[in-house]
Amino acid sequence: MPKVLCSISTRGRYHTTLPLALQAIISQSRSVDKLMIFDDNDEPQDMRKELAYSYFFQMLELKGIAWEWLFAGKKGQHHNHQMANSMGYEWVWRVDDDAIPEPNVLENLLKWTRLDNIGAVGGAILTPPYLPDTSQVTGLIDNIDNEPNIQWNFIYERKDVEHLHCSFLYRAGVADYNTGLSRVAHREETLFTYALRQKGYCILAVPEANTWHMKNPQGGIRSETNHELYSHDEFIFRNFLEHRDKTIVVLNCGMGDHVVFSHVLPEIKNPLVFSCYPDIVPGRSIAEAQWLFGDLDRWNVYKKMDKWRWKDSLETAYRKLYL
Amino acid sequence: MILIAPYAQKLVNGKRNPKNYPFWDEVIAGVAEPIVQVGVEGEAQLVPEFRKNLKIPELRALIRECRIWVSCDSFIQHLGWDEGKQGIVLWSVSDPLIYGHEENINLLKDRANLAKNQFLWWDSVEYDPNKFVQPSEVLRHVC
Protein backbone atom coordinates (compact mmCIF):
# COMPACT_ATOMS: atom_id res chain seq x y z
CA MET A 1 0.00 0.00 0.00
CA PRO A 2 1.56 3.31 -1.02
CA LYS A 3 1.89 5.88 1.73
CA VAL A 4 -0.19 8.98 1.14
CA LEU A 5 0.24 12.33 2.80
CA CYS A 6 -2.70 14.71 2.60
CA SER A 7 -1.58 18.32 2.41
CA ILE A 8 -3.95 21.19 3.06
CA SER A 9 -2.89 24.80 3.25
CA THR A 10 -5.34 27.18 4.82
CA ARG A 11 -5.84 30.89 5.23
CA GLY A 12 -8.87 32.86 6.33
CA ARG A 13 -11.24 29.90 6.40
CA TYR A 14 -11.23 28.62 9.97
CA HIS A 15 -14.95 28.98 10.28
CA THR A 16 -16.19 28.55 6.73
CA THR A 17 -14.97 25.82 4.39
CA LEU A 18 -11.92 24.42 6.21
CA PRO A 19 -13.98 22.31 8.65
CA LEU A 20 -15.91 20.86 5.71
CA ALA A 21 -12.70 19.98 3.94
CA LEU A 22 -11.28 18.34 7.06
CA GLN A 23 -14.48 16.36 7.64
CA ALA A 24 -14.33 15.15 4.03
CA ILE A 25 -10.69 14.10 4.36
CA ILE A 26 -11.36 12.21 7.57
CA SER A 27 -14.29 10.43 5.91
CA GLN A 28 -12.42 9.05 2.92
CA SER A 29 -13.02 5.37 2.13
CA ARG A 30 -9.25 5.01 1.87
CA SER A 31 -7.66 6.82 4.76
CA VAL A 32 -4.67 9.03 4.27
CA ASP A 33 -1.57 8.00 6.20
CA LYS A 34 -1.01 11.47 7.51
CA LEU A 35 -2.88 14.76 7.39
CA MET A 36 -0.69 17.83 7.29
CA ILE A 37 -2.43 21.15 7.87
CA PHE A 38 -0.36 24.21 7.04
CA ASP A 39 -1.91 27.16 8.82
CA ASP A 40 -1.03 30.23 6.76
CA ASN A 41 -3.35 32.60 8.59
CA ASP A 42 -2.18 36.11 9.35
CA GLU A 43 -3.31 35.58 12.94
CA PRO A 44 -3.18 31.84 13.57
CA GLN A 45 -5.28 30.37 16.35
CA ASP A 46 -5.14 27.26 18.48
CA MET A 47 -8.07 25.42 16.95
CA ARG A 48 -7.99 22.65 19.58
CA LYS A 49 -10.18 24.98 21.63
CA GLU A 50 -12.91 24.93 19.00
CA LEU A 51 -15.50 22.22 19.52
CA ALA A 52 -15.69 20.93 15.94
CA TYR A 53 -11.94 20.92 15.54
CA SER A 54 -11.34 19.17 18.83
CA TYR A 55 -13.64 16.42 17.56
CA PHE A 56 -11.82 16.28 14.23
CA PHE A 57 -8.53 15.71 16.00
CA GLN A 58 -10.06 12.97 18.15
CA MET A 59 -11.60 11.33 15.09
CA LEU A 60 -8.22 11.31 13.37
CA GLU A 61 -6.62 9.71 16.39
CA LEU A 62 -9.35 7.09 16.75
CA LYS A 63 -8.96 6.21 13.06
CA GLY A 64 -5.21 5.93 13.45
CA ILE A 65 -4.45 8.80 11.07
CA ALA A 66 -1.36 10.76 11.99
CA TRP A 67 -1.89 14.51 11.80
CA GLU A 68 0.07 17.67 12.26
CA TRP A 69 -1.00 21.29 12.41
CA LEU A 70 1.88 23.49 11.39
CA PHE A 71 1.87 27.25 11.77
CA ALA A 72 3.32 28.07 8.38
CA GLY A 73 5.49 30.92 7.17
CA LYS A 74 2.74 33.06 5.61
CA LYS A 75 4.56 32.95 2.31
CA GLY A 76 1.79 31.27 0.36
CA GLN A 77 0.48 27.80 -0.18
CA HIS A 78 3.15 26.89 -2.73
CA HIS A 79 5.77 27.02 0.03
CA ASN A 80 3.60 24.75 2.17
CA HIS A 81 2.94 22.28 -0.61
CA GLN A 82 6.65 22.20 -1.37
CA MET A 83 7.27 21.19 2.23
CA ALA A 84 4.72 18.41 1.85
CA ASN A 85 6.32 17.44 -1.44
CA SER A 86 9.61 16.77 0.31
CA MET A 87 8.41 15.00 3.45
CA GLY A 88 9.34 11.55 2.18
CA TYR A 89 5.92 10.23 1.17
CA GLU A 90 5.46 8.46 -2.13
CA TRP A 91 2.23 10.28 -2.92
CA VAL A 92 0.75 13.55 -1.75
CA TRP A 93 -2.91 14.34 -2.04
CA ARG A 94 -3.29 18.10 -2.01
CA VAL A 95 -6.67 19.46 -1.07
CA ASP A 96 -7.61 23.11 -1.10
CA ASP A 97 -9.23 24.51 2.02
CA ASP A 98 -12.38 25.28 0.09
CA ALA A 99 -12.55 21.95 -1.75
CA ILE A 100 -14.77 19.20 -0.42
CA PRO A 101 -13.90 15.78 -1.84
CA GLU A 102 -16.57 13.09 -1.98
CA PRO A 103 -15.73 10.06 0.18
CA ASN A 104 -14.38 7.91 -2.66
CA VAL A 105 -11.98 10.45 -4.17
CA LEU A 106 -8.68 9.30 -2.73
CA GLU A 107 -9.53 5.62 -3.22
CA ASN A 108 -10.34 6.18 -6.87
CA LEU A 109 -7.40 8.46 -7.56
CA LEU A 110 -5.05 5.91 -6.05
CA LYS A 111 -6.31 3.14 -8.34
CA TRP A 112 -4.81 4.99 -11.29
CA THR A 113 -1.38 5.18 -9.72
CA ARG A 114 -0.98 1.45 -10.38
CA LEU A 115 -0.40 2.31 -14.03
CA ASP A 116 3.15 2.92 -15.10
CA ASN A 117 4.71 6.33 -14.99
CA ILE A 118 1.91 8.28 -13.34
CA GLY A 119 2.89 11.74 -12.12
CA ALA A 120 -0.46 13.16 -11.01
CA VAL A 121 -4.12 12.19 -11.02
CA GLY A 122 -7.02 14.57 -10.60
CA GLY A 123 -10.77 14.26 -10.64
CA ALA A 124 -13.51 16.76 -11.30
CA ILE A 125 -13.43 20.02 -9.34
CA LEU A 126 -16.99 21.28 -9.47
CA THR A 127 -17.91 24.86 -8.62
CA PRO A 128 -21.70 25.23 -8.56
CA PRO A 129 -23.46 26.51 -10.52
CA TYR A 130 -20.64 26.79 -13.07
CA LEU A 131 -20.50 23.75 -15.33
CA PRO A 132 -18.84 24.56 -18.65
CA ASP A 133 -18.89 22.20 -21.60
CA THR A 134 -15.64 20.28 -21.41
CA SER A 135 -16.45 17.62 -23.99
CA GLN A 136 -13.89 18.98 -26.47
CA VAL A 137 -11.23 19.94 -23.97
CA THR A 138 -7.70 18.79 -24.80
CA GLY A 139 -5.98 19.48 -21.50
CA LEU A 140 -2.91 20.65 -23.37
CA ILE A 141 -0.91 23.56 -21.99
CA ASP A 142 -0.95 25.16 -25.44
CA ASN A 143 -4.71 25.54 -25.17
CA ILE A 144 -4.85 26.88 -21.65
CA ASP A 145 -6.14 30.27 -22.81
CA ASN A 146 -8.72 28.85 -25.18
CA GLU A 147 -10.57 26.15 -23.28
CA PRO A 148 -11.98 25.50 -19.83
CA ASN A 149 -10.12 23.21 -17.49
CA ILE A 150 -11.21 19.62 -17.93
CA GLN A 151 -11.74 19.37 -14.17
CA TRP A 152 -14.51 21.97 -14.22
CA ASN A 153 -17.14 19.46 -15.26
CA PHE A 154 -17.84 15.81 -14.50
CA ILE A 155 -15.23 13.54 -16.05
CA TYR A 156 -16.59 10.43 -17.73
CA GLU A 157 -13.44 8.76 -18.96
CA ARG A 158 -9.75 8.91 -18.24
CA LYS A 159 -7.91 11.53 -20.22
CA ASP A 160 -4.20 12.26 -20.49
CA VAL A 161 -3.63 15.97 -19.94
CA GLU A 162 -0.69 18.27 -19.35
CA HIS A 163 -1.85 20.13 -16.28
CA LEU A 164 -4.27 19.98 -13.37
CA HIS A 165 -5.50 22.49 -10.84
CA CYS A 166 -6.84 22.89 -7.32
CA SER A 167 -6.77 19.39 -5.85
CA PHE A 168 -5.07 16.22 -7.09
CA LEU A 169 -2.87 13.31 -6.06
CA TYR A 170 0.75 13.51 -7.17
CA ARG A 171 4.01 11.61 -7.05
CA ALA A 172 6.09 13.41 -4.45
CA GLY A 173 9.70 14.50 -4.70
CA VAL A 174 9.91 14.52 -8.49
CA ALA A 175 9.12 18.10 -9.48
CA ASP A 176 9.28 21.25 -7.36
CA TYR A 177 6.71 23.92 -6.69
CA ASN A 178 7.87 27.30 -7.90
CA THR A 179 8.51 29.15 -4.66
CA GLY A 180 9.45 32.25 -6.60
CA LEU A 181 5.76 32.98 -7.10
CA SER A 182 4.20 35.64 -4.91
CA ARG A 183 2.07 34.85 -1.88
CA VAL A 184 -1.03 34.49 -4.04
CA ALA A 185 0.72 31.64 -5.88
CA HIS A 186 -1.36 32.23 -8.97
CA ARG A 187 -0.93 29.31 -11.43
CA GLU A 188 1.17 27.35 -8.94
CA GLU A 189 -0.63 24.04 -9.46
CA THR A 190 -0.59 24.43 -13.24
CA LEU A 191 3.15 25.06 -13.21
CA PHE A 192 3.70 22.17 -10.82
CA THR A 193 1.73 19.56 -12.74
CA TYR A 194 3.20 20.71 -16.02
CA ALA A 195 6.66 20.35 -14.47
CA LEU A 196 5.77 16.73 -13.65
CA ARG A 197 4.71 16.29 -17.25
CA GLN A 198 7.99 17.74 -18.45
CA LYS A 199 9.79 15.19 -16.30
CA GLY A 200 8.13 12.55 -18.46
CA TYR A 201 5.29 11.49 -16.18
CA CYS A 202 1.65 11.07 -17.20
CA ILE A 203 -0.94 13.47 -15.85
CA LEU A 204 -4.45 12.04 -15.75
CA ALA A 205 -7.92 13.49 -15.37
CA VAL A 206 -10.11 10.63 -14.18
CA PRO A 207 -13.79 9.87 -13.51
CA GLU A 208 -15.52 9.08 -10.20
CA ALA A 209 -13.39 11.39 -8.13
CA ASN A 210 -15.54 14.48 -7.63
CA THR A 211 -14.56 17.35 -5.42
CA TRP A 212 -16.92 20.21 -4.72
CA HIS A 213 -15.19 23.53 -4.87
CA MET A 214 -17.00 25.92 -2.56
CA LYS A 215 -15.13 28.80 -4.05
CA ASN A 216 -15.01 31.31 -1.29
CA PRO A 217 -14.69 35.00 -2.12
CA GLN A 218 -12.94 35.38 1.24
CA GLY A 219 -9.79 33.64 2.39
CA GLY A 220 -7.10 31.78 0.50
CA ILE A 221 -5.44 33.61 -2.33
CA ARG A 222 -8.54 35.73 -2.68
CA SER A 223 -7.48 37.49 0.55
CA GLU A 224 -4.97 39.29 -1.61
CA THR A 225 -6.26 42.17 -3.68
CA ASN A 226 -2.90 43.40 -4.90
CA HIS A 227 -3.09 42.84 -8.63
CA GLU A 228 0.64 43.26 -8.98
CA LEU A 229 1.08 39.90 -7.28
CA TYR A 230 -1.11 38.21 -9.86
CA SER A 231 0.71 40.01 -12.67
CA HIS A 232 4.07 38.91 -11.29
CA ASP A 233 2.98 35.27 -11.16
CA GLU A 234 1.35 35.42 -14.56
CA PHE A 235 4.60 36.82 -15.98
CA ILE A 236 6.55 33.85 -14.60
CA PHE A 237 3.94 31.41 -15.87
CA ARG A 238 4.11 32.90 -19.36
CA ASN A 239 7.89 32.72 -19.35
CA PHE A 240 7.78 29.02 -18.57
CA LEU A 241 5.31 28.54 -21.40
CA GLU A 242 7.42 30.54 -23.81
CA HIS A 243 10.51 28.47 -23.07
CA ARG A 244 8.81 25.11 -22.68
CA ASP A 245 10.59 23.59 -25.67
CA LYS A 246 13.97 24.42 -24.21
CA THR A 247 15.97 22.82 -21.45
CA ILE A 248 16.52 25.68 -19.04
CA VAL A 249 19.94 25.52 -17.43
CA VAL A 250 20.81 27.74 -14.49
CA LEU A 251 24.40 27.65 -13.28
CA ASN A 252 24.21 29.66 -10.09
CA CYS A 253 27.38 28.05 -8.73
CA GLY A 254 31.17 28.16 -8.68
CA MET A 255 33.70 28.33 -11.48
CA GLY A 256 34.75 24.71 -11.09
CA ASP A 257 31.14 23.61 -11.28
CA HIS A 258 30.86 25.43 -14.59
CA VAL A 259 33.88 23.56 -15.93
CA VAL A 260 32.37 20.23 -14.89
CA PHE A 261 29.01 21.16 -16.37
CA SER A 262 30.64 22.08 -19.68
CA HIS A 263 31.23 18.36 -20.24
CA VAL A 264 27.48 17.69 -19.97
CA LEU A 265 26.26 20.63 -22.03
CA PRO A 266 26.78 19.07 -25.49
CA GLU A 267 24.30 16.31 -24.61
CA ILE A 268 21.52 18.66 -23.49
CA LYS A 269 18.68 19.08 -25.91
CA ASN A 270 17.97 22.67 -26.95
CA PRO A 271 19.58 24.32 -23.92
CA LEU A 272 18.85 27.84 -22.71
CA VAL A 273 21.74 28.64 -20.40
CA PHE A 274 21.99 31.18 -17.60
CA SER A 275 25.49 31.33 -16.20
CA CYS A 276 27.59 33.03 -13.53
CA TYR A 277 30.77 32.67 -15.57
CA PRO A 278 29.96 33.15 -19.24
CA ASP A 279 33.67 32.94 -20.07
CA ILE A 280 33.46 29.26 -19.02
CA VAL A 281 29.89 28.45 -20.04
CA PRO A 282 28.33 31.12 -22.24
CA GLY A 283 24.90 32.19 -21.13
CA ARG A 284 22.56 34.92 -20.02
CA SER A 285 22.76 36.35 -16.51
CA ILE A 286 21.48 34.73 -13.33
CA ALA A 287 19.58 37.92 -12.53
CA GLU A 288 17.64 37.48 -15.75
CA ALA A 289 16.83 33.86 -14.87
CA GLN A 290 15.53 35.02 -11.49
CA TRP A 291 13.42 37.68 -13.15
CA LEU A 292 12.00 35.30 -15.76
CA PHE A 293 11.36 32.21 -13.64
CA GLY A 294 11.13 33.41 -10.04
CA ASP A 295 12.69 30.60 -8.15
CA LEU A 296 16.00 29.05 -9.15
CA ASP A 297 16.15 26.28 -6.55
CA ARG A 298 14.98 23.64 -9.00
CA TRP A 299 18.30 24.14 -10.81
CA ASN A 300 20.47 24.20 -7.69
CA VAL A 301 22.63 21.11 -8.15
CA TYR A 302 23.84 21.25 -4.54
CA LYS A 303 20.31 21.21 -3.15
CA LYS A 304 19.51 18.37 -5.51
CA MET A 305 22.56 16.34 -4.46
CA ASP A 306 21.64 16.89 -0.83
CA LYS A 307 18.09 15.75 -1.48
CA TRP A 308 19.26 12.72 -3.48
CA ARG A 309 21.83 11.82 -0.77
CA TRP A 310 24.30 11.88 -3.59
CA LYS A 311 27.46 9.73 -3.56
CA ASP A 312 28.43 9.85 -7.23
CA SER A 313 30.31 12.57 -9.09
CA LEU A 314 29.20 16.14 -9.67
CA GLU A 315 29.19 15.49 -13.40
CA THR A 316 26.77 12.59 -12.97
CA ALA A 317 24.57 14.82 -10.80
CA TYR A 318 24.40 17.34 -13.64
CA ARG A 319 23.42 14.55 -16.00
CA LYS A 320 20.60 13.51 -13.68
CA LEU A 321 19.42 17.10 -13.37
CA TYR A 322 19.44 18.00 -17.05
CA LEU A 323 19.37 14.89 -19.25
CA MET B 1 57.88 24.46 -13.81
CA ILE B 2 55.37 23.46 -11.17
CA LEU B 3 52.12 25.33 -10.87
CA ILE B 4 50.51 25.67 -7.44
CA ALA B 5 47.08 26.97 -6.48
CA PRO B 6 47.22 26.91 -2.70
CA TYR B 7 43.91 28.45 -1.71
CA ALA B 8 40.25 27.70 -2.13
CA GLN B 9 37.70 30.50 -2.29
CA LYS B 10 37.51 32.77 0.75
CA LEU B 11 34.68 32.01 3.12
CA VAL B 12 31.92 34.51 3.77
CA ASN B 13 32.46 34.22 7.55
CA GLY B 14 36.14 35.21 7.17
CA LYS B 15 37.42 31.97 8.70
CA ARG B 16 40.10 29.80 7.14
CA ASN B 17 38.71 27.56 4.44
CA PRO B 18 38.85 23.95 5.69
CA LYS B 19 40.03 22.89 2.21
CA ASN B 20 43.22 24.99 2.37
CA TYR B 21 46.35 22.84 2.68
CA PRO B 22 48.41 23.81 5.78
CA PHE B 23 51.89 22.59 4.82
CA TRP B 24 52.72 24.52 1.66
CA ASP B 25 56.00 25.88 3.04
CA GLU B 26 57.32 22.36 3.55
CA VAL B 27 56.19 21.25 0.11
CA ILE B 28 57.75 24.29 -1.57
CA ALA B 29 61.00 23.79 0.32
CA GLY B 30 61.20 20.26 -1.03
CA VAL B 31 60.82 21.22 -4.69
CA ALA B 32 63.98 21.92 -6.70
CA GLU B 33 62.39 23.42 -9.82
CA PRO B 34 60.67 26.78 -10.45
CA ILE B 35 57.24 27.23 -8.95
CA VAL B 36 54.53 29.56 -10.15
CA GLN B 37 51.71 30.36 -7.76
CA VAL B 38 48.29 31.38 -9.07
CA GLY B 39 45.47 32.90 -7.09
CA VAL B 40 43.62 36.10 -6.43
CA GLU B 41 44.41 39.40 -4.77
CA GLY B 42 44.52 39.11 -0.99
CA GLU B 43 45.94 35.60 -0.84
CA ALA B 44 49.30 35.04 0.83
CA GLN B 45 52.28 34.92 -1.50
CA LEU B 46 54.24 31.70 -0.97
CA VAL B 47 56.79 31.84 -3.79
CA PRO B 48 58.55 34.71 -5.63
CA GLU B 49 56.37 34.34 -8.71
CA PHE B 50 52.74 34.90 -7.82
CA ARG B 51 50.39 35.60 -10.73
CA LYS B 52 47.14 37.05 -9.53
CA ASN B 53 43.69 37.34 -11.04
CA LEU B 54 44.58 35.67 -14.32
CA LYS B 55 41.97 35.23 -16.99
CA ILE B 56 40.91 31.71 -17.80
CA PRO B 57 42.86 31.47 -21.09
CA GLU B 58 45.98 32.57 -19.19
CA LEU B 59 45.39 29.92 -16.54
CA ARG B 60 44.86 27.31 -19.23
CA ALA B 61 48.15 28.31 -20.86
CA LEU B 62 50.00 27.95 -17.56
CA ILE B 63 48.47 24.54 -16.95
CA ARG B 64 49.60 23.39 -20.37
CA GLU B 65 53.07 24.80 -19.75
CA CYS B 66 53.74 23.34 -16.30
CA ARG B 67 55.22 19.91 -15.66
CA ILE B 68 52.59 19.25 -13.03
CA TRP B 69 50.13 21.32 -11.03
CA VAL B 70 49.25 21.03 -7.34
CA SER B 71 46.12 22.48 -5.73
CA CYS B 72 43.64 22.07 -2.97
CA ASP B 73 40.04 21.29 -3.94
CA SER B 74 39.49 24.45 -5.95
CA PHE B 75 38.87 25.68 -9.46
CA ILE B 76 42.31 24.64 -10.76
CA GLN B 77 41.67 20.93 -10.22
CA HIS B 78 38.69 21.17 -12.59
CA LEU B 79 40.49 23.32 -15.13
CA GLY B 80 43.50 20.99 -15.14
CA TRP B 81 41.20 18.03 -15.71
CA ASP B 82 39.45 19.95 -18.47
CA GLU B 83 42.85 20.56 -20.09
CA GLY B 84 43.67 16.87 -19.86
CA LYS B 85 46.73 17.64 -17.76
CA GLN B 86 47.16 15.46 -14.71
CA GLY B 87 47.81 17.20 -11.39
CA ILE B 88 47.79 16.60 -7.65
CA VAL B 89 44.80 17.54 -5.52
CA LEU B 90 45.18 17.85 -1.75
CA TRP B 91 41.92 16.87 -0.09
CA SER B 92 40.65 17.12 3.46
CA VAL B 93 36.91 17.45 4.14
CA SER B 94 35.40 17.48 0.64
CA ASP B 95 34.86 14.16 -1.10
CA PRO B 96 37.03 13.43 -4.16
CA LEU B 97 34.48 10.85 -5.31
CA ILE B 98 31.98 13.69 -5.71
CA TYR B 99 34.08 16.71 -6.52
CA GLY B 100 37.24 15.14 -7.88
CA HIS B 101 38.32 13.56 -11.13
CA GLU B 102 39.86 10.13 -11.28
CA GLU B 103 42.33 11.37 -13.90
CA ASN B 104 44.04 13.44 -11.19
CA ILE B 105 46.21 12.22 -8.31
CA ASN B 106 43.84 12.68 -5.40
CA LEU B 107 45.61 12.69 -2.02
CA LEU B 108 43.09 12.18 0.77
CA LYS B 109 44.35 11.23 4.22
CA ASP B 110 41.25 9.42 5.44
CA ARG B 111 37.65 9.25 4.27
CA ALA B 112 36.66 9.41 7.94
CA ASN B 113 37.68 13.08 7.82
CA LEU B 114 35.12 13.99 5.17
CA ALA B 115 32.43 16.45 6.16
CA LYS B 116 29.20 14.66 6.97
CA ASN B 117 27.18 16.90 4.68
CA GLN B 118 29.05 17.56 1.46
CA PHE B 119 26.51 20.02 0.11
CA LEU B 120 26.44 22.84 2.67
CA TRP B 121 28.66 25.90 2.66
CA TRP B 122 32.18 25.14 3.83
CA ASP B 123 31.81 27.96 6.39
CA SER B 124 30.13 25.46 8.70
CA VAL B 125 33.13 23.10 8.72
CA GLU B 126 35.94 23.70 11.20
CA TYR B 127 39.50 23.96 9.95
CA ASP B 128 41.72 21.06 11.00
CA PRO B 129 45.28 20.72 9.64
CA ASN B 130 45.40 17.11 10.80
CA LYS B 131 42.95 16.15 8.07
CA PHE B 132 45.54 16.60 5.29
CA VAL B 133 48.30 14.32 4.07
CA GLN B 134 51.84 15.13 5.17
CA PRO B 135 54.17 17.15 2.86
CA SER B 136 56.38 14.09 2.36
CA GLU B 137 53.43 12.32 0.73
CA VAL B 138 52.89 15.28 -1.60
CA LEU B 139 56.55 15.51 -2.49
CA ARG B 140 56.66 11.80 -3.28
CA HIS B 141 54.18 12.50 -6.10
CA VAL B 142 55.59 15.84 -7.19
CA CYS B 143 59.22 14.88 -7.53
Provide the fold topology:
The complex is a heterodimer of chains A (323) and B (143).
Chain A: E1 4-10, H1 18-26, E2 34-39, H2 51-62, E3 66-71, H3 77-85, E4 91-96, E5 99-101, H4 105-112, E6 118-122, E7 125-126, E8 159-161, E9 168-171, H5 188-198, E10 202-205, E11 211-213, H6 227-242, E12 247-251, H7 255-262, E13 271-275, H8 286-293, H9 301-307, H10 314-322
Parallel strand pairs in A: 1-2, 1-4, 2-3, 6-10, 7-11, 12-13
Antiparallel strand pairs in A: 4-9, 5-11, 6-9, 8-10
Chain B: E1 2-5, H1 24-29, E2 35-39, E3 50-52, H2 56-65, E4 68-72, H3 75-83, E5 87-90, H4 96-99, E6 105-107, H5 135-142
Largest interface, by Cβ-Cβ below 8 angstroms: which chains and how many residues each? A-B, 19 and 18 residues
Biggest sheet overview of chain A: 8 strands, mixed
What is the number of E strands of chain A? 13
Distance between the termini of chain B: 12 Å
- What is the alpha-carbon Rg of chain B in Å? 14 Å
Query: Which consecutive residue ranges of chain B, at least 5 long each, have pLDDT under 50?
Result: none
Helix/strand order of chain B? EHEEHEHEHEH
How large a portion of the residues of chain B is in β-strands, by DSSP E? 15-25%
User: Helix/strand/pairing class of chain A, anyone?
Assistant: alpha/beta
- Tally of separate helices of chain A: 10
Major sheet characteristics of chain B: 6 strands, parallel
* Distance between the first and last residues' Cα of chain A: 31 Å
- What is the topology, as strand order, of the major beta sheet of chain A? 3-2-1-4-9-6-10-8
Architecture overview:
The complex is a heterodimer of chains A (323) and B (143). With 323 residues, chain A is α/β, with parallel strands linked by helices. Helix content of chain A is 30%, strand content 18%. In chain A, the strands form three sheets. Chain A has an eight-stranded mixed beta sheet with strand order 3-2-1-4-9-6-10-8, sandwiched between helices. The mean pLDDT of chain A is 94. In chain B, 26% of the residues lie in helices and 17% in strands. Chain B contains five helices and six strands. In chain B, strands 3-2-1-4-5-6 form a six-stranded parallel beta sheet, sandwiched between helices. In chain B, strand 4 (68-72), helix 3 and strand 5 (87-90) form a beta-alpha-beta unit. Chain B is globular, with a radius of gyration of 14 Å. The model of chain B has no long low-confidence stretch (mean pLDDT 96). The A-B interface holds A 254-257, 259-260, 262-263, 279-280, 302-303, 305-306, 310-314 and B 9, 55-56, 74-75, 77-79, 81-82, 97-100, 117-120.
